[in-house]
Amino acid sequence: MHAIYTLVCCILHNYYIILAVVSAKTTPANNSKQAKAAAIPNPARELREPKRHGLIAHLVCATKFTKLDSITWACLWFADLSRLEELVSDCERGSFQAYITRQVLMESYCKTHVIDAWAVARSNNDEDEDDAENTSDDEDSATEEEPPTKKRRVTSSPEQSPSASEKEATSLANKLCTERDNASCVITGCRDPVESAHIFPKSMGKMDTQDSILTWYSLQYFWSKEKVNAWREQVNGPNRTEVCSNLLCMTNLAQKLWKKARFALKPLCLSEDRKSLQVQFYWLPVYQYRARVSATEIPSRFPKHLSGTAVHGQETVLFSIATDRNVCSGDILTFTTNDPDGHPLPSMELLDLQWVLNRVLALSGATYATDKELYTDDWSYELDFDWASEEDM
Hints:
Elements: H1 2-24, H2 32-38, H3 50-63, E1 67-68, H4 70-78, H5 81-92, H6 95-106, H7 108-121, H8 164-180, E2 195-198, H9 202-205, H10 209-219, H11 225-233, E3 247-250, H12 252-259, E4 263-270, E5 276-283, E6 293-294, E7 309-311, E8 314-316, E9 319-320, E10 325-326, E11 332-336, H13 348-364, H14 371-374, H15 387-391
Antiparallel strand pairs: 1-6, 2-3, 4-5, 5-11, 7-8, 9-10
Helix pairs in contact: 1-3, 3-5, 4-13, 5-6, 7-10
């Protein structure tokens, strides 16, 4: 029995590796336009990593999952490979360890809490969330489901009035950010109106101690402790989220699209003198949240040749004054400062966190899920394996 189980895991592992390699192959470009398009890195290269396919297949086999919620599913596909390797290694220690790993993955509340907190912070109570599906003429674009037309019910506990010191920190951070970015949107170059947009949401910075611990602990399910600690360190100071390095100047439209994970910024490099920072802009697809996703389902690749997104069924674009054209996926944006100490650039660590979670948010479809969909009481995952009998072998 155990030998058959091991054989099945090996077959699945090899199958997903072969499938990933085949799907990753591309046809050479035949003209300059295709060559230029092909040069744009895919915004979700993780989805085509053969090693990741093999590790997830092994993990699914070892834990006996048949279904996952789309948040857990999305987290697995964007998780650190080192964490996936550790989870697989835990499963290989025996059926009890596999059971523990399964329980960690099956426990959905913590992961939902984190992604929902990120998504809720990226929602506006006064907005109508009836966004239509993202449309694309990209040949690599997968079929995307239309987001629900009902708005998530955002609940929050009554906030205490900010103290004088908190108001002062917010005012100073906004002032420094505006001065650093020359009161211009870092995406479009527009000068008015612009506002300071938080990378790490302000509301998450106000979480109580228990929720804060839960958030960072949950992230360690899928990303290394070192990486999560680096993220946390950036908002762990006395002013928490109210610092210049956690802010970017954006127009209201750009900020709202960013908050809904309609696009993400991939941090590329910070100059040695810390006066210049490059990021790559990517429009993200829109998917529908699913309470049950086949654990073996491979996500469709993210389109990489987009020049806008669809809102209310109409295409919405961001126009760059600097380039005199629409902002497109793959565009390189450069942020600068004359004073890296007094007016620091956005934190590379926080931009990395945003790059990870915005893509998880997009793939999971949690942006447009309702409370009823996210917090269902029915978490009966299918299990077709008798753990007790395995222990007796």
